[in-house]
Design a protein that fits this description.
Blueprint: H1 3-11, H2 14-47, E1 48-54, H3 60-70, E2 77-85, E3 91-99, E4 102-108, E5 111-124, E6 131-140, H4 145-161, E7 165-166, E8 168-172, E9 175-178, E10 183-184, H5 197-209, H6 212-217, E11 223-229, H7 236-247, E12 250-254, H8 263-271, E13 277-281, H9 291-296, H10 309-317, E14 325-331, E15 349-352, H11 358-368, H12 374-387, H13 393-402, H14 407-412
Parallel strand pairs: 8-12, 11-14, 11-15, 12-13, 13-14
Antiparallel strand pairs: 1-6, 2-3, 4-5, 5-6, 7-10, 8-9
């Protein structure tokens, strides 16, 4: 049989025809699957836009809160327990359901969004010990503006929840973490200082905030340092809290006597401090004393952490120190500080907070007992100064708390103010 006759005989073989058909169908299906995969990849690449936000990014918690607000109909949930502090100080527990890890769909601004929340159980954030997470948003189209709108809305939603409050951060590991509950902003007028001090500092801070170009044009590092010093209880920390409320800033609280604080960690923390925040270094004399005092009494250096004075100086105004930063330091003992720490460039404004003057005592009486005659306020101030010339604002406030609604008793029992 010739080759041509063999080929013609295969045409009439039903087994061969069926096998050839199966092969053809398999090939066609494989090509179709490959084409669909290629088409899907091309569609995703050219007709869809994706945004990934990891748990390390500052906007992650804002976005998670935004997703919770919009994905109200999802059936796959995780619980988020939080605490709410009321005006009276009472704390109540609240529960919120947030979308669990997996895929969710949200209808937003006339289009569907796919929200994919991933949790890597094998990867942990070394700073917090929590699993590594990410959220991926996917939308049809190529316009990135939708993601800008979502992030902006998520930020505004988070700020609205903190409206009228001051947020405190504390250094945990290599990051700043919110400390406790956001506090109600303390009115600036509630801290009664000696005449003119409040206005002077507030004006100086506003001048700094409003003049970045002035610093840049003159080649001056855009940062400002303040040192508030004086006896304990005279309003240093209270004023900084009220100032943060006035500026609508947060407060980053750091202890320089922390045994785990190193030069590198301090420099890193100052460089990543949240925007629009005051970095507060309280009681700096507890961490460092002047080198002259250390020579006279070496024991004063015992028990201090790994942070060095040179490391602190470099963090405040070294080459790598960040700009656009407000740093407040407080101390009860100015003479214990090394002159290098409080020189211009590191401390640009020094202010003494002393014991209450006659004017302060009178103003505090009128603030606690509004509507009382000025003569009563004057009498209270006279009696308090006659009793002791060294009365702190904390002592006066404590005395008034014992006589909340009894201004006459506050005057008559004035001796209790130093009890």
């Amino acid at each position: 049989m010739s080759f041509s006759e063999f080929i013609l005989s295969l045409k009439d073989n039903q087994y061969f025809g069926a096998g050839f058909g199966l092969v053809g169908m398999g090939t066609a299906l494989a090509l179709a699957r490959k084409g669909a995969q290629f088409g899907l990849v091309a569609f995703r690449r050219h007709c869809m836009i994706t945004l990934e936000v990891t748990s390390r990014d500052k906007s992650y918690h804002w976005l998670l809160n935004w997703i919770t607000h919009h994905a109200k109909h999802t059936q796959h949930l995780s619980v988020l327990t939080s605490y709410l502090q009321h005006e009276s100080g009472k704390v109540s527990t609240t529960f919120e359901f947030i979308p669990s890890p997996g895929n969710h769909f949200i209808w937003y601004e006339g289009r569907w969004l796919r929200v994919e929340r991933n949790r890597e159980k094998q990867m942990l954030d070394l700073n917090t010990g929590t699993p590594w997470e990410s959220v991926t948003l996917t939308s049809l189209g190529r316009n990135r503006q939708i993601f800008f709108d979502i992030l902006r809305e998520a930020r505004n939603l988070a700020l609205k929840q903190q409206e009228g409050k001051t947020v405190l951060y504390t250094a945990m590991g290599s990051e700043w973490r919110q400390f406790g509950f956001p506090r109600r902003r303390r009115p600036l007028h509630s801290v009664v200082l000696e005449r003119g001090i409040t206005q002077k500092i507030v004006q100086d801070v506003h001048d700094f905030i409003n003049s970045p170009k002035w610093y840049i044009d003159r080649g001056i590092p855009y940062r400002r340092g303040y040192l508030l010093y004086g006896p304990p209880g005279c309003g240093k920390s209270s004023f900084i809290t009220a100032l943060a409320g006035e500026l609508q800033y947060s407060i980053c609280l750091m202890s320089l006597s922390d045994q785990s604080l190193t030069d590198d960690r301090l420099n890193h923390l100052l460089s990543i401090a949240p925007q629009q925040s005051i970095v507060l270094l309280e009681d700096v004399d507890a961490a460092f004393v002047s080198r002259d005092l250390a020579k006279e009494n070496p024991a004063m250096y015992q028990g201090m952490g790994r942070l060095t004075l040179s490391g602190l100086l470099n963090a405040l105004d070294g080459v790598a120190s960040p700009e656009a930063r407000l740093v407040f330091m407080t101390t009860n003992y100015l003479d214990r500080l090394d002159p290098a720490l409080i020189r211009p460039g590191r401390v640009d404004h020094k202010q003494f907070f002393g014991y209450c003057s006659h004017w302060q005592l009178s103003q505090m009486f009128q603030r606690f007992y509004p509507g009382q005659p000025a003569a009563m306020a004057e009498k209270f101030a006279d009696n308090a100064l006659a009793l002791s010339g060294k009365i702190s604002a904390a002592q006066v406030q404590g005395h008034f708390l014992l006589c909340k609604f009894e201004p006459l008793r506050a005057i008559e029992d004035i001796q209790q103010i130093i009890a």
